[in-house]
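worker-03 picked up job from queue 'complexes'. Input manifest follows; two sequence lines, order preserved.
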Amino acid sequence: MFKILHAQFIAPGIKRFVIEAPRIARKQRPGQFVIIRVNEKGERIPLTIEKSDPEKGTVNIVVQSLGKTTHMLNSLEAGDSILDMVGPLGKPSEIEKFGTVVVMGGGVGTAMAYPTASAMKRAGNRVITIIGGRNKDLVLLESEMREVSDTVLVTTDDGSYADKGLVTDKLRQLIENGTRIDLVLAVGPIPMMRAVADMTRKERIKTVVSLNPIMIDGTGMCGGCRVLVEGKSEFACVDGPEFDAHRVDFAVLVQRNAMYRDAEKRSMENYQHEAAEKKSAAPADAEVACALEGKK
Amino acid sequence: MSTPTTPTKKSNNPIPNKERIKMPRQHMPEAPPEVRNKQFTEVNLGYSAELARQEALRCIECAKPSCTKDCPVGVKVKEFVQLIVDGDFMGAAAKIREDNVLPAITGRVCPQEDHCEGACLLCNKGESLGIGYLERFVADYEQKHFDVTKIVKASPTGKKVAIVGSGPSGLTAAGDLVQKGHEVHVFEALHEIGGVLVYGIPEFRLPKQIIREQVDIMRAMGVEFETDVVVGRTVTIDELLDEEKYDAVFIGTGAGLPQFMGIPGEHLNGVYSANEFLTRINLMHAYEFPNYDEPMVDFRGKNVAVIGGGNTALDAIRSSLRLGAGNAFILYRRSEAEMPARLEEIKHAKEEGIQLQVLAAPLEFLDDGKGWLRAARCQKMELGEPDSSGRRRPVPIPGSEYELPLAVAIMAIGTTANPIIQTTTPGLATTKKGYIQADDTTQKTSRRGVFAGGDIVTGGATVILAMGAGRRAAKSIHEFLVSGEW
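worker-03 finished. Artifact:
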């Protein structure tokens, strides 16, 4: 059992947890992740590590409510526990002095990019960070990023904060302005990472993306997280999660991540149904009717 | 390791030897095929005490029992079988436990025909003694009657051993070492104890409850377990030795990364590795979705094929049938005679309605246009000259290509070495294929105090061979801890 010491929403549907996990806290390096299982009947899902504190033995994770498991997680509070948390998994980011590094975070991907940005800065790089969200509320970790970056550029899709547009617009501007870029790291939704890869491929800028495919054990045993890299299967949990963006087949990634969409939808509906039932404490026969409905 | 002992006790078997060889082997009661192929409950139902006694009477009590000699852990078969004849089932269990700490598991999944039963002299006259069935009977009896309060713990030696991986080799090493009085701590990467026994072997062949009970006995013996620790990532081998002050480490991390064929279309939705498919079913209970959260592709009424002919392939395809597959095929590139699976599994699979397509292999998986598997383009084979494995090599027949419509294909063609420990342990020598180098008899690695055994040393093998390695390792770890000499 892994105890939650603090839990706080940092944006609508996005929660930061501080979890007691001394072994993981001690070993975590930028770019790595954890796998959690909320309860006995839960699935195993990979999650982003924002940072860890080896002294206190704590790990911060940032979770966006998307399906049943993340909704369940985000209903937990300080004092509650997560049944299983294993990590840190995956290869750490390659940190060295590249020169100028552009770190791009889309939505909750910003939390995964943050420790790498921080390490890149410590390694003596000039760090230009570009973060974005659909709206003002979904721009995450801006102040944290400012602390570890030379420049922070912010976009929102709807223009409700900073500059209206996409993070890739900012990247294009940098390229067009003739900014020398030695490395781009992009973490975010697949369409964003794909767009970044397409843009930098033409410019021959080394680009790394952090992938988040479906995963079970996270140790290389199951092969569920395989991604097509230049026509060859590689496993995100042991060969990644970071890959050369120009070699990744994003279409296959999208296709494989959609494999359980129907089941995920069904899980989510059942969960919402149960949550609603709990709230309303409906009379007995109405409950039976609901249960039957759910079975269909 | 224990050596076969000459019996000091006279047998109480009243039947003369020449009569015993005429007695038929007692059949294992089984759930009917048409019932069991729709559910995950156990296929073999186990001997009753009466059946066990009947079967035990068949043992001809060889002076030099080859059954024991051929057992990777050296179970004293003749002696435990005699105790069954005497009706002393707990005594029989204790006798097995001297050499095998997981009898309820080996009694179910060990390929006995390759070891004890294959060596049984009764084979010459008819059918071998049902040693596996008897072992299972005794182990199940013990589990029902086990009194943990009666466990006598060895006096502590003050030495600490870390076991990495809670599969067959790790559990065996742990069981042997704790009985010597060493403090034993087992680290497991997954959330359940048992390694391949829980993620790989389905409920209908090895119920999870059996593993839990065997592990509970080990806990009562003093073994400590810690789940959710990926050694190499969460903590390294060097940290275990230097900082956590373990006096020795045994690495039994098991089968590695699943292999794919490298043919077009393997990334399509609906193509699984057997490891992933079985992990979803066994560890994550996907067959109980949505009661459990882990999802599975809908198999109902669909064509499903497994590629491969080993136990993993059979476990996968029999599980597919239980998920409601309309047609369940085994695609195997050699002939049935070369299939490496246990004979009993092949028999059970056929009874349940599995269709064998032997001497055939896929060349390509075909897309339905939406990223899902539609069919496999296959090729027929014939057998040529024997290859390095001694089995006749499959040779493609030109012009024999055909299309097999499939919604799901499961690759069960073996594994390659998992690199996590090797790449995080400086000085740990590996083989060309990336497995950990360990001595055949002592299981010592190139690093002082570090031992290894099981699939991470040999590549994919069987539960009992891994257990044998665990036993050998425990013996030499004990010697190392006592003498301090490497």
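worker-03 released lock.
Residues 261-280 of chain A form the longest helix (20 residues).
Chain A has a mean pLDDT of 93.
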